């Protein structure tokens, strides 16, 4: 069984989402003998954001020389995603949504004919045979029913993206309110780590 672990926080060792995503992976390693884990830090080797030249290359045009390495990296990330049975993502909220590095990765895996297709019945996801677990960290409180819920475009976006690819029940572990104050941060991290430690085996 293969697990793909992705981090997207720019904060390095100070990142809560990285801490929680690592705890998730540790839990699954312990509960799943022989689990094969690959790790990718999307901030150390970021993909370029899509351009018209990227899209042209995707339609069969010869890629510009300056883009060949980036296109190859994006293709490798798509194949890596498709090969994974479990995907664990560290996703902090930046300005109410996902980090741009994570968006660049999503743009390379959301590919017609590989992870979804259109049919007479509508969109059909092609990557539904995966378990996706997301560690979310947010500076404030954005859960359902909170005053700021309308500003939440991280969890809602990722639920839609993975659902579009056929992954209907992604799992989320939250560390909310980490910028409200030290006590709030400590409580949020402890709660998220506890939830990670209680995850069902792979």
UniProtKB/TrEMBL annotation:
One of its GO terms (molecular function) is FMN binding. FMN binds at residues 9, 15-17, 93-96, 137-140. Its EC number is 1.6.5.-, 1.7.1.17. Keywords: Flavoprotein, FMN, NAD, Oxidoreductase. It comes from the Bacteria. Residues 1-198 form the Flavodoxin-like fold domain. Homodimer. This is FMN dependent NADH:quinone oxidoreductase. It comes from Bradyrhizobium australiense.
């Amino acid at each position: 069984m293969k697990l793909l672990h992705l981090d997207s926080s720019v904060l390095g060792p100070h990142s809560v989402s990285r801490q929680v995503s690592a705890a998730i992976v540790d839990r699954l390693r312990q509960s799943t003998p022989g689990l094969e884990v690959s790790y990718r830090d999307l901030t150390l080797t970021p993909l370029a954001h899509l351009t018209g030249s990227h899209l042209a290359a995707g339609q069969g045009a010869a890629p510009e020389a300056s883009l060949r390495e980036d296109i190859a990296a994006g293709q490798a990330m798509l194949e890596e995603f498709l090969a994974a049975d479990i995907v664990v993502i560290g996703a902090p909220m930046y300005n109410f949504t996902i980090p741009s590095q994570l968006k660049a990765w999503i743009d390379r895996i959301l590919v017609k004919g590989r992870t979804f297709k259109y049919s007479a019945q509508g969109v059909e996801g092609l990557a539904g045979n995966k378990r996706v677990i997301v560690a979310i960290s947010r500076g404030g409180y954005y859960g359902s029913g909170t005053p700021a819920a309308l500003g939440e475009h991280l969890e809602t976006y990722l639920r839609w993206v993975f659902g579009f690819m056929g992954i209907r029940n992604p799992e989320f572990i939250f560390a909310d309110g980490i910028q409200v104050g030290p006590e709030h941060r400590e409580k949020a991290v402890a709660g998220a780590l506890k939830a990670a430690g209680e995850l069902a085996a792979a």
